[in-house]
Amino acid sequence: MGSFYENSVVPDHLRRDFDVYDRIKELDLDIGTFDQWMERDLKGANICSVIFHESGLVYLSGYGYGPGQMYDDPDRLKEGQGAAQFVADSMIGRLHWSLTCGGEGGDLNDVLYTVKGLGMVVSTDVAFHGAPSVMNGFSSRWQSVFGGGAGAFAKDGIDSSYSGVHARSAIGGFTGRFSIEPELIVAVAPELARAIIRNRGWVFPLPPTEAERIRTEYKANHG
Predict the structure, then answer these.
(1) Phi, psi of 194 (to 5 degrees)
(2) pTM assigned to the model
C-alpha cells in the first residue's frame, strides 16, 4: 500500500485492504509505459490532461471516445458502455504516470478516494434516456480498480473498499463524432500533491524543460 495512503486521514473502516495494481493485473488492464505517456509535453498545447492542486485534489480532463451518437437501443448502449470503460482504462494509465513519473514516491495506491465524475454523452435524440447507463461503463470500471459495489470484485454489491465510488453527473444531448466524454476528480494526500508540485509543477504533461529533466532522471534510475 502507498506510504502516503497509509498516513492519510482515511478511517480504518474505509481503508483498502488490496493493492490497486493487483486488480489492474487481474483485469488485464494496460496502463502503458513511461515512454508512451512522456513522449508529449506542453509545447504548443491548449490544455493539459491532469492538474494537481495543493489540497490533494487531482483534476483529469475529459476524453472523447466511441462509435458515435447514442440512442436507446440495448446494443447501442452496450457499445457506449464499452467506450466509457475504454476511457476509464486510459484515465487509470494517465493517472498512474502523472503520479509516478517524477519519482516523488506516490502511485495509484495513494489515491484516497474518488470525488466527482462527469459524463457528457453524445445524442441529439431528445427522447434519449440512456446517458446514465452509458456512463455506468466508466463508473463500474473505476470501482473495479479502486473499490465499489458496482465493480468487478464486489460480491452481492459489497466491496472491501468504496474509494472508487464518486458523485456523478451523466448528461446527454451533445453533438460529436464520438459517444462519450468523461472527466474526473480524485483526491490524494495533500503531502503527495505538494511533493509533486514542488518537484515538477502542477501540470501533466509537463512543460518542455521539465519533461526533458524528468525523462533524463527516469532513464538514469531505471536503465
Answers:
(1) -70, -35
(2) 0.97
